[in-house]
Amino acid sequence: MKIMIRKAPNGVTSVYVPKKDLEEPIVAMENPGMWGGLVTLANGWQLAMPDMPEGTTLPITVEARRTTTGEEV
Q1: How far apart are CA 45 and CA 56, in angstroms?
Q2: For residue 11, what are the contacts with CB-CB under 8 A and spacing of at least 6?
Q3: Model confidence over 13-38: pLDDT tens digits?
Q4: What's the rounded Cα separation, in Å, for the pair 30 and 8?
Q5: What percent of the chain clears pLDDT 90, i.e. is strictly above it?
Q6: What is the rounded distance in angstroms from the CA atom of residue 34 to the CA atom of residue 29?
């Protein structure tokens, strides 16, 4: 699914999913740089992030794969 990742001025990184009109902060990252691993959103969704170079500027739109529905949490 296409998602937009952005960082707010207060330092919180969030994900916006246009098809669901959903914006949630990222609460956990598998990899410190976020890219190439799983991220967990505040609603419990886990997204598999694509491999991107360290230091990729935000905001950015990427293709990510949802690995959970969020109902497990």
Answers
A1: 23
A2: none
A3: 999 999 999 999 999 999 988 999 99
A4: 21
A5: 82
A6: 6
Burial class (CB in 10 A: 0-12, 13-18, 19+), 50: exposed
Q: Which sign does the torsion angle of CA 10, 26, 24, 56 carry?
A: positive
Whole-number Cα distances in Å, 3 to 28, 59, 63: 17, 10, 6
Judged by DSSP in three states, 68 sits in coil
Q: Could you tell me if 6 and 16 are in contact, meaning their C-beta atoms sit under 8 angstroms apart?
A: yes
Q: Compute the distance between CA of residue 67 and CA of residue 48 in angstroms, rounded to an integer.
A: 7
Q: How far apart are CA 12 and CA 25, in angstroms?
A: 7
Long-range residue pairs from 22-28, CB within 8 A, at least 24 positions apart, any chain:
none
